[in-house]
Each structure stands twice: as C-alpha cells, then as structure tokens.
Design goal:
Blueprint: H1 13-17, E1 26-32, E2 35-40, E3 47-53, E4 59-67, E5 78-79, H2 81-93, H3 105-119, H4 123-133, H5 136-139, H6 148-158, H7 164-184, H8 191-197, H9 215-228, H10 230-242, H11 246-249, E6 257-258, E7 264-268, E8 281-285, H12 288-297, H13 322-331, H14 340-352, H15 357-363, H16 368-374, H17 376-387
Parallel strand pairs: 4-5
Antiparallel strand pairs: 1-2, 2-3, 3-4, 6-7, 7-8
Length: 407
C-alpha cells in the first residue's frame, strides 16, 4: 500500500477552511515522482487537482474531485486528503503508466464530433443532443474514473423531462462517444459502467411502427403531396416506394436514376454506424411509373444535379420537410402521422408479401436484427401464416362418416 503523506494545511477540513479563498491552489504535495496533489479553496467546497509532469519539460493539471470540506468523504465524489492522494496517482498514471493528460467526458465528446465530421455523420443532431443535456459536473469527469453512480444520477435527472425515445437517442450518442474514447485510450477500462447505467429504456416505449398506413391511405398521401407541389410529391413518392430515409433520398443526384428495363435508384447509404463503410450506394428498385416521372422532372439537368430538390433548388434536410408533410396529412384527415410512417409501411408491406427479411434490410439500409426487433409483431404474424401451411388439414365433412372397407 502506498505511504500516505502528511500536510498540516490540507490534512483536515478545519485546517483547509481556515485558508483564504483564492484561485491559486494550495499544497503541491508530491505524492509520487512527477505527480503533485493540489487543493483549491473555493467559496463553497474546495476541490482536489493533480499536476503531472509530461516528461517533455511541461505538465498538465486536472481537477479530480471535491474535497470533504462540508460533507463526509465517500471516495467516489467527495474525497478526504488521503483518498485524494490515491486518486491523484491513479489519474496521473492510468493503468498503463501513461503521462498524457487523462481524457475528460468533454474531451471525449469533442473527439466524437471530429470523428463524425470525418465520416460524414450527423454531427448536428448527435453532438448537439449531448451538449444540450450534459451537466458541467459530468463534462469535467475523467472518463476512466466514471462510475455507474455518476451516470445513473444523470440518467435519473433526465427521466420525466424527455420522451423515452429521445432518451434512448441521447444515450446511444453518448455511449458512442465514450466507446470511441475507450477504443483509443488503453487507460479507459470501465466501459461496462456506461453500458449498464445508460441502458434499459428500450422496452419502456412503443416504437413508431404503429404508424403503418393502409395502401389506400398511402395513395391519398401521395396525391395530396403532389397537390402541395411537384417536387414535394416526387420526394414523398420516392420515400413511399423505397422506404428510404429522407436524409438518403435528399442526396440522390440525377445520375443515380437508372430507368432501364428494371428501373432503380442507386441510393446513398445512411450515415449511421461507426467506421468508414466500404459500400457507399445500394441499388433500390422502383416502379416504371415513378422512373418516368423522375426522368421527365430531370430532363435537361446535369447528371450531378439533385434528383429531388426543393422548389428553390436546394436540398431537403432533416426538418424542412415537416411543415409541408404535416399540412398534407392534416388535409386528408391523418393528423399526427410522420414521414417515417412511409418507411414503416413499406417494410411491413414487404414482410406481409413474403419478401425475405435480408432483402428488405438491404433495400432500406438496415439489418435483419433491427427489422426483427422493430417489426417483431408483423414478423410473427407472417411466420404464423407460413407455418400454418404445414398443418394437417381436416378431412372433408362428407367423408367424416365413411369407414374404409378392409381389402
């Protein structure tokens, strides 16, 4: 066990509270070679910091926790002088005796943002969502020292302030940021902490696959969308036939339309998931009627032009389709239906018509596991229908009383 050092000014809370409040830290207790423990006297509870030599003539400093000035130490959030010494060594050395400054949650989110930019991911929604709900106290935590209690406390503070589906999206993005940090930093070995503390919400809410439209309602939506405008009508018809996400359809260019004997769209893949995907586009079949409409609408346009532009020629993005779609569904008596219902309807329609899940997954840029989870009720209904084809049929009613003669 490491020897505990003594310091008359910092060892007891009474001695620390007798110190004047100031921004410059007190102490600089040498707890190991190149590692100093410091104490900052604040208006409220003071805080412990570690100052570490980086081996290159410089140093870095990191706040590691609150001092037990006004509450008892728990060795998790609040630390006494001796607990702070052990924590300072742990933060400074990590598990691999690294000398680099340990990664904070704020640093991890910054790296995640840069990784999303590199991969062309959805930075605005993923990172913005985290920053909106992250507390300063949690942002300042060292990732390698995160505890389940840290994240459970934050988790519980958000319950009731957000819809469960929004919580799931927030926690998925946050876990992605922490997982990226753990993959790139050997000192972070506590991934189970956020895996457990930020899970368990998925089963508490119904998925949006309840918004499945009948074919009659789908045709009504398409007709009303064309009444809203030619460009909007084409967008909605493409979404209806392909089941693609609007973020993918919006990136289609004229060259992606293949209107031969088997018309199709060469659909860009989504920006979901981690890593750089090898597949960037997938062929998605469309009807000859839709192909003809798209060909007429793009006549004379450059191959690099947007296939489905807004009326002003710019790209549809995540939010600017919502108002016209809301007007469409309200006008035909389907208030509350979102554009995602078109994707759900296409998937369910394909399942009920016997299209293999693997083919559906490839078409809508998803996975068979995700489809099974999201559309399990429809998968089971379809499986039941197929399984019944193997049941033994009852004999004809007119033959029920006939007894075969022995030969």
């Amino acid at each position: 066990m490491a020897r505990h050092l003594r310091h008359s000014q910092l060892e007891t809370r009474s001695a620390r509270l007798a110190l004047p409040v100031r921004t410059k830290p007190y102490g600089s207790v040498k707890v190991a070679r190149g590692i100093l423990l410091q104490y900052r006297r604040n208006d409220g509870a003071g805080s412990w910091s570690v100052k570490v030599a980086n081996g290159k003539g410089g140093h870095w400093t990191q706040r590691i926790g609150a001092a037990d000035d006004f509450e008892d130490a728990d060795n998790r959030h609040v630390f006494d002088f001796f607990q702070a010494q052990a924590l300072a060594r742990k933060v400074a050395r990590g598990s691999e005796h690294e000398t680099a400054k340990p990664l904070t949650v704020r640093d991890a989110i910054g790296r995640y943002e840069r990784d999303l930019v590199r991969r062309g991911g959805d930075v605005a929604n993923n990172v913005k969502r985290i920053h909106k709900h992250l507390t300063k106290a949690l942002a300042d935590k060292v990732v390698a020292l995160l505890t389940e209690d840290d994240l459970t406390t934050w988790h519980n503070s958000l319950i009731g302030t957000m819809k469960p589906a929004s919580l799931v999206r927030l926690f998925k993005a946050f876990k992605a940021a922490l997982n990226l940090a753990a993959r790139n930093d050997r000192t972070i070995r506590n991934a189970d902490v956020w895996r457990h503390a930020l899970s368990g919400i998925q089963d508490t809410f119904g998925t949006r696959n309840k918004q499945v439209l009948s074919e009659a309602d789908i045709y009504r939506v398409i007709t009303a969308a064309y009444e809203e405008g030619q460009q909007f009508g084409l967008l909605i018809e493409v979404l209806t036939e392909t089941g693609t996400r609007i973020s993918q359809a919006a990136r289609l260019i004229v060259a992606d339309l293949k209107d031969g004997a088997n018309p199709r769209l060469i659909m860009p893949v989504s920006r979901k998931g981690r890593g750089v995907r090898k597949i960037t586009h997938r062929p998605v079949p469309i009807t000859a009627g839709l192909a003809t409409k798209l060909k007429l609408a793009t006549k004379g346009k450059a191959k690099s032009a947007l296939l489905l532009p807004k009326p002003d020629g710019t790209q549809w993005v995540r939010d600017n389709h919502r108002l016209p779609f809301r007007l469409v569904v309200e006008r035909i008596g389907l208030p509350g239906i979102t554009v995602y219902a078109l994707r759900h309807s296409m998937v369910v329609r394909s399942i009920l018509r016997g299209v293999p899940l693997r083919v559906i997954a490839a078409t809508v840029d998803s996975s068979t596991g995700e489809l099974e989870r999201t559309y399990s009720a429809y998968v089971l209904d379809h499986a039941d229908e197929i399984a019944r084809k193997g049941l033994l049929e009852a004999p004809p009613a007119e033959a029920a009383n006939v007894v075969p003669l022995r030969p």
